[in-house]
Amino acid sequence: MTEISMHAFVSGRVQGVWFRQSTKDTGQSLGLKGWVRNLSDGRVEVQASGEDKAVRQLEAWLGQGPELANVAEVECTYAEAMDLPFPFEVR
């Protein structure tokens, strides 16, 4: 079982639409460690770590987000697994 970390920036209509809470819930359901927060430029930042398959499932979910979101772009970078907060949290 390979573990990785993902750092992502999500842009579009992603603030004020339950994006952070939904990301937290999705991250927790996938057994991931990490956090999500709003940025002052209107994007959402996500840092997640865990099983490769689960991290990539979160990345796919970020491309759609919750029902009220309208995701324009997801920019992701990957690295070796990092020690992040567990359970997944909103910052």
From TrEMBL:
Keywords assigned by UniProt, alphabetized: Hydrolase
SUPFAM superfamilies per the UniProt record, alphabetical: Acylphosphatase/BLUF domain-like
Highest taxon listed in the record's lineage: Bacteria
Reaction(s) catalysed by this chain's protein: an acyl phosphate + H2O = a carboxylate + phosphate + H(+)
InterPro entries referenced in this protein's UniProt entry, alphabetically: Acylphosphatase, Acylphosphatase-like_dom, Acylphosphatase-like_dom_sf, Acylphosphatase_CS
Catalytic residue list: 20, 38
Record has Lipoprotein as a keyword: no
GO molecular-function terms, A-Z: acylphosphatase activity
Enzyme Commission numbers on file: 3.6.1.7
Span of domain Acylphosphatase-like: 5-91
Family: Belongs to the acylphosphatase family.
Name of the protein in question: Acylphosphatase
